[in-house]
Amino acid sequence: TTSFGAVLELDLRDPLDPAQQRELQEVFAARHLLLFSEQDISFEDQVRVVGYLGPVLAGGAEWVSNVREGGLVPEGALLFHSDFIFTAEPSLGLCLYATEVPPGGSPTNFADAVGAAGRLPPELRARVQGRQALNVFDLSDQRGDARFREATLGPETPLSPRYAHPVL
Q1: Which of 33, 84, 92, 147 could join 54 in a cystine, given CB atoms 3.0 to 4.6 angstroms apart?
Q2: pLDDT tens digits, one per residue of 130-156
Q3: Any residues with CB less than 8 A from the CB of 19 and at least 6 apart, and which?
């Protein structure tokens, strides 16, 4: 069994009382991914629900779409990434609200980094303990998921936001 992710059946249009808010916070802390399906909520509902889990990033709402005019990602699926990891204070989480999902589902995938770190063999854990990874926001990069070193970043990337965080 996995401890990653939980499907919750709540009507997100209804405000939660303080006890329900604490329960939601506990499930999020334990499972790291919450799915609420079949919701028809307003933007205000979405902000309220996210606010139960932590501070809401001001101005952080964007359309991520490859079918809607003005969407952030008009060219299609993104490579695996972690939103805002290139900042000094990465966000606690991310809230996605699907308005159109293709038949068969969405290509959005999630990874359980906490679970993966917990399953590291002791010798690998010891090797990476105390090390940092440089995270760079560079949408001009065309290398895909290939590994690269800081020295191989392109000439545009000195202006790209970046931040080093502990691997563990």
Answers
A1: 92
A2: 999 988 877 666 666 666 677 777 666
A3: none
